[in-house]
Design brief:
Elements (H helix, E strand, L loop, with lengths): L1 H26 L3 H7 L3 E3 L1 E3 L1 E17 L2 E6 L3 E6 L6 E2 L4 E5 L2 H25 L3 H5 L3 H15 L1 H16 L2 E3 L4 E4 L8 E2 L3 E8 L3 E8 L11 E6 L2 E13 L8 E8 L10 E17 L3 E4 L2 E8 L2 E6 L1 E5 L3 E6 L6 E3 L12 E3 L3
């Protein structure tokens, strides 16, 4: 009986140590064997390159006429003739409106009569100084002549005539520039006061887009820099433009106004909203395709490839132009970076490059 117990105990012990040995073998199986069993992730790749990089500055604003002038009615009167309507094109110097000239013409007639009377008085007074005027003393003759013109009222009459002529001319309102009529404020027959606005005349030349740019980007913008403009009415087709001016002042929101001249005005009107993309070339920048950049726990990551495995690289990102991203730190120039299937990729995961 005792012998049977020893045999049973020996059998159980042998079984226990045998099972333990098998467990240790499983635990000691190399990690590499599991990695080989995982299918390699197919990825597309690109090179991290040092090259010229176009940083895109996006801004929105409104289109304005390059030249815009307010036509002012300079004196009061009845608007008896209005030769334009909104949207109509006019040429510089063209008469666009007329005021009733009756009163202005009357003042002009009176001024002409006053001048004739003053001139007659001057000639009459001059006859009393025949000796002086027939002498060779030019300086004395000049002095007496000016005194007689002043006493006769000739000087004042000449000024009043010029003033009356100017008022008569102001009865006709002429276009100060060539362009199109906008914001017409009066109708024919209206009684208007002096210095009132009749309309706006929008220059028929180039349009200008006024946009607001962050003050941090203003150092990247210079005169004559290339820009692309997209009007809200035609957001698919770019219109070529160039920077023509910058306001030398930052507003309370940290923005600077930039003016962009547009080479085409097709289907565009002043006041339209538009978007501008200003290209700011950056030389010798290390860039990768934007698809190579992913974010993990709020940090920027780029995966590179080493020995057919993915390598996790934390990076510091610079400027972004929508297609490429500037890398300031974290990836070496010439590195092969992964641009697809990288959203859930892990560090040291096996990868296979897709051949295009």
């Amino acid at each position: 009986m005792i012998k049977s117990r020893f045999i049973l105990f020996g059998f159980l012990a042998l079984t226990f140590f045998s099972c333990k040995s098998d467990e240790e073998k499983v635990e000691e199986a190399p990690t590499e064997s599991f990695r080989n069993e995982v299918a390699a992730t197919e990825v597309r790749v690109a090179k991290a390159e040092v090259k010229s990089f176009d940083y895109l500055i996006n801004a929105t604003g409104k289109l304005e006429a390059s030249s815009q002038v307010t036509a002012i009615i300079e004196q009061a009167g009845f608007l008896i003739e209005l030769n334009v309507k909104e949207g109509q094109s006019v040429n510089k110097g063209e008469v666009i409106a007329r005021l009733d000239p009756t009163e202005a013409q009357l003042r002009l007639d009176k001024a002409e009569i006053s001048l004739r009377n003053a001139n007659a008085e001057y000639e009459s007074m001059k006859m009393g100084y025949e000796t002086i005027f027939s002498s060779g003393d030019e300086e004395r003759k000049k002095t007496i002549d000016e005194q007689l013109k002043a006493k006769s009222g000739l000087f004042m009459a000449e000024v009043e005539l010029k003033e009356a002529q100017l008022n008569r001319e102001r009865c006709e309102l002429k276009a100060p520039i060539s362009g199109r009529i906008a914001d017409l404020k009066f109708k024919e027959g209206s009684l208007v006061s002096a210095s009132q606005e009749l309309c706006e005349i929008l220059g028929s030349g180039q349009l200008t887009l006024k946009v607001k740019v962050l003050e941090s980007d203003i150092s990247l913008i210079s005169s004559n820099q290339k820009a692309e403009v997209y009007a809200v009415s035609d957001s698919q087709n770019a219109i070529e433009g160039r920077v023509v001016g910058m306001n030398p002042k930052v507003d309370e929101n940290g923005l600077v106004q930039v003016s962009i001249a547009i080479n085409s005005s097709r289907n565009l009107l002043p006041g339209m909203n538009a978007r501008a993309i200003i290209r700011a070339p950056q030389n010798n920048s290390l860039v990768v395709p934007k698809d190579a950049l992913v974010y993990r726990s709020g940090r920027a990551v780029v995966f590179s490839i080493e020995n057919n495995e993915s390598k996790w690289n934390y990076v510091e990102v610079g400027k972004d132009n929508g297609e490429e991203v500037e890398i300031l730190e974290g990836v070496e120039a010439g590195s092969t970076v992964i641009t697809s299937n990288n959203l859930q990729l892990a560090h040291q995961a096996p990868v296979q490059i897709i051949k295009e």
